[in-house]
């Protein structure tokens, strides 16, 4: 039977996906989600603006033919082409940059953030911003702002080294402003943060509606990352101020916000997003592609799948497994997934921890697996130990495969699992170990949970539902329906992210 959506809308809608560190250059849950949307809508034309690391990353996803253009915006590769401004243009740009920095550091000046950001965006399009921020003038401006009386950051005694570090990090973070923004269709940012910058510019310049999807809360993850980051507080104050105000501006300007779970929605509402413009859209999987996994392994085995990354908190999982082995000495822990470039030290730390605890031989890092279903089938119980998640694919895929799960209570995990798995606090090895032991010792309960988990996926989290929902959203945004709702919405409440983040 012909698809009525395709018959009616073929070629009528164009969508630019705005990504950061994901599709089409990296594996991971968000990349899977992007690929599902793109391949599931051959009737929609797509472009991709991908914020990458160096710009040399190969594409790891096969991009279908209806994706017209994929443009990489490297944050850490060669600097954008351009020359520093001179004369009056230099003075005007530095004045805009001063207002921008003041907004980041002075709570009473935050209203100046958006106007200054768009002034910087104009300079970036002319090839002036990046060269200007690599010069001494930008460092002097930040030092002057830091030293103003009454600003809390001054109590941390910022140094010239701090100013050089913060200025360099901001220069890299603002590089996406230098890429030509979409001129028509719909901009779809698949995360918050720097990926949104071309979308904000497209809205400002060309009236292109901006759709925002947050799988994890970008701002929350920045706070988690900078908590243990190598920078002094003055540097963190600048960067976290930027990410917070950028999130608020994005929430103010997005025509529609589609969080992947209700937890994200709370952050967005606190950031000033009108509740009537937030629509939760869960991730989905194809139950036929993730059928029941079949027989369990003969010996007690915990399996995990994902990328080897600190946010996945494998250290807590390994510590929990050590406690499991005191009760079940034959237990194994099998970890499936690649290690991102630059993450090798974290994997080595996890391997060293397993050895230090005396269980190195029972913990295996097995790398990427050709068929992810094999990773779920490898365990009696599938584990998820993350300290931050959106609505994790690995969880609903494992549920579709009929495996019982133990997961940390972060993001949309509890919404996904319901009562078909066990949920424990994050960073709590003892609670995780107790839950794993509870299921490893109860085969009948595991089987019942697995059957209930697969039924839950079929009823609530199918890929078809996800794709159809986003097709409807794209068509509505392109036709102006959602933009009209945006203009009528109450946009009050900006600034509340400071309260929830603090």
From TrEMBL:
Boundaries of every DUF3492 domain copy:
14-275
UniProt xrefs under Pfam families? DUF3492, Glyco_trans_1_4
Cross-referenced InterPro entries: DUF3492, PelF-like
Protein known as: D-inositol 3-phosphate glycosyltransferase
- Gene3D superfamilies the record matches: Glycogen Phosphorylase B
